[in-house]
């Protein structure tokens, strides 16, 4: 597979391109690890000003590290702990403008300053979360939330 990845200085153009390309990298015949690895790689290409992007998968009692791009990360997160655990518990997207204001924040990368986490839920069951960190306070917006929720919806469509 040969793809050309054209990233511009215009965030809206990059998000549009990502949404157009992403379906070509999701295949229900591939393993979920393969699909999530490609999603995290594409997000890493098209999202600017981030330092970590990836997935935590629900094991039945906690979140465990899945495919990602960035520095090594925490391997397990309790439901309700940190931004990922809160998103999993609430089953709602969490945007934190400044992670240093969160009492139970988990600092895997000390350079991370803001975070967005989107839960992945299929047929009412938690599958995991999509987590994106940035070294910039206030990096994530409603446009990021809309994009990442669309990405998660595409992932949910190919889940078994």
Describe, in plain words, how this protein is organized in 3D.
The chain has 160 residues and is an alpha+beta fold. The chain has a single domain, classed as 2-Layer Sandwich (Beta-Lactamase). Helix content is 32%, strand content 26%. The protein is built from 4 helices and 6 strands. The mean pLDDT is 94.
- Distance from N terminus to C terminus (CA atoms, Å) equals 24 Å
Major sheet: 6 strands, antiparallel
CATH class: Alpha Beta
The CATH homologous superfamily is named: GAF domain
CATH architecture: 2-Layer Sandwich
Strand order of the largest sheet: 3-2-1-6-5-4
Structure summary, number of beta strands? 6
Percentage of residues in helical conformation: 25-40%
Oligomer: single chain
- How much strand content do the residues show? 25-35%
pLDDT < 50 stretches = none
Question: Could you spell the SSE succession in H and E letters?
Answer: HHEEEHEEEH
* Continuous helix count: 4
CATH topology: Beta-Lactamase
Give me the Rg, rounded: 15 Å
Q: Return the structural class.
A: alpha+beta
- What is the global morphology? globular
């Amino acid at each position: 597979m040969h793809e050309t990845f054209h990233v511009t200085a215009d965030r809206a153009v990059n998000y549009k391109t990502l949404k157009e390309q992403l379906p070509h990298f999701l295949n229900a015949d591939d393993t979920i690890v393969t699909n999530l690895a490609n999603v995290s790689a594409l997000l890493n290409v098209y999202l600017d000003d981030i330092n970590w992007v990836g997935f935590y998968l629900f094991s039945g009692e906690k979140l465990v590290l899945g495919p990602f791009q960035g520095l090594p990360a925490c391997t397990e997160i309790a439901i309700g702990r940190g931004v990922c655990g809160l998103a999993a518990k609430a089953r709602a997207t969490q945007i934190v403008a400044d992670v240093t204001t969160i009492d139970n924040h988990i600092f895997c990368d000390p350079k991370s300053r803001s975070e967005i986490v989107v839960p992945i839920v299929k047929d009412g069951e938690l599958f995991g979360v999509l987590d994106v960190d940035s070294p910039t306070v206030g990096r994530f917006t409603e446009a990021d939330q809309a994009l990442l929720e669309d990405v998660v919806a595409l992932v949910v469509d190919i889940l078994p």
